[in-house]
Amino acid sequence: MTRNSREESAAPTRGDALLRVEGFSLDLAPGREYLSVLNDIDLEVRSGEVVGLVGESGSGKSTLAMSLMGLVPKRISRQRSGRILFNGVDVTALRERDLRAIRGRDVGMIFQEPMTALDPAYRVGDQVAEVIRRHRGVSRAEARAQVIEDFRLVEISDPERRADAYPHELSGGLRQRVCIAMAIACRPSLLIADEPTTALDVTTQAQILELLRRLRAEMDMSIVLISHDLAVIAEFCDRVLVMYAGQIMEQAMIDPFFVRPRHPYASALLQALPENQPPLNELSVLPGSPPPLGYVAPGCRFANRCEFAQAGRCDTHAVSLSPTDAGEVRCIRADELVLEGAGQ
Ligand SMILES: Nc1ncnc2c1ncn2[C@@H]1O[C@H](COP(=O)(O)OP(=O)(O)OP(=O)(O)O)[C@@H](O)[C@H]1O
Ligand SMILES: [Mg+2]
Predict the structure, then answer these.
(1) In a domain, 343, yes or no
(2) Which of 64, 105, 228, 258 is deepest in the core (most CB within 10 A)?
(3) Residue 6 forms part of a structural domain
(4) Reduced to 3 states, what is the DSSP secondary structure of residue 28?
(5) Using a 6 Å cutoff on CB, does residue 295 contact ligand 1?
(6) Apex CA 225: angle with CA 223 and CA 231, to 5°?
(7) pTM of the predicted structure, to 2 decimals
(8) What distance in angstroms lies between residue 200's CA and the mean position of ligand 1's atoms?
């Protein structure tokens, strides 16, 4: 299988920034009012790198993923600041037509629920062929041949028969494999996988992650993997980004992060990993809850739940990201604290 969709864009070499998000803030309007959902997001994904994005439900992970692909509808959103540079091009400034050309071709996306991406009324093979035809302008027969080849690549057995199935005729694991085939059909340089295994049983989950790992190595893609499961991120990613209430609280290389997280929220997440819990005990969940959508605290957003917060220091001024040995952290006490990691 060749990577033949990159002739038009100058392919970056390994280690270059493929994606760079700079000071990106986005408001959404669930009702009449706009509320702040993403705040001052800075991140970078280098060519060939696998980056994990973790955070509690509602922290903005999917909104960020959708923003990267220009998929947040304009009528319910307002960008307050920043840029999202993909291969040096600001996708926030592109028209829908140009965005559509990038989506699927240069950036592929796998959604949490496979049925989001699949139309129940069409055969799965035809749906994947449609993506190939849209971006490559090949004949029906050529597209069909590639679908079969790609179904083999994502380890769908009996691909000719499966290609003629409707989504509801396939198991959850097979549907997710079809979605992966669709996402990689044009050999994107970046794959965004939003909770790709959450809806699957543990065995299928492991198989899908193994498949992604293999594809990544064979195709040399960058991957952004969104998961609320730090164990999955530990196993799969080179680097992790921790989100809380619409902000990146910490970003770090995986190994040092697990041994010595620098943000109290990251440390709390690591403490809650099942292997740190005594058996048959309830999982230690973080006390308190994240701020309501749109509420902007005067100081650190995590201060009201943080066991290390100091009144008059942590709750007065917004905190910016500062460099650490392994990445960056948004905590003014980071250098004073020695926080617990995931244990051994
Ligand atoms: N289309 C929308 N309109 C208005 N508000 C939205 C919309 N989509 C998401 N939100 C809100 O934005 C916030 C962030 O949601 P998002 O889905 O990005 O979080 P998440 O981190 O992906 O959560 P989860 O882990 O549950 O998938 C939530 O409070 C959500 O209610
Ligand atoms: Mg989500």
Answers:
(1) no
(2) 64
(3) no
(4) strand
(5) no
(6) 130
(7) 0.90
(8) 21
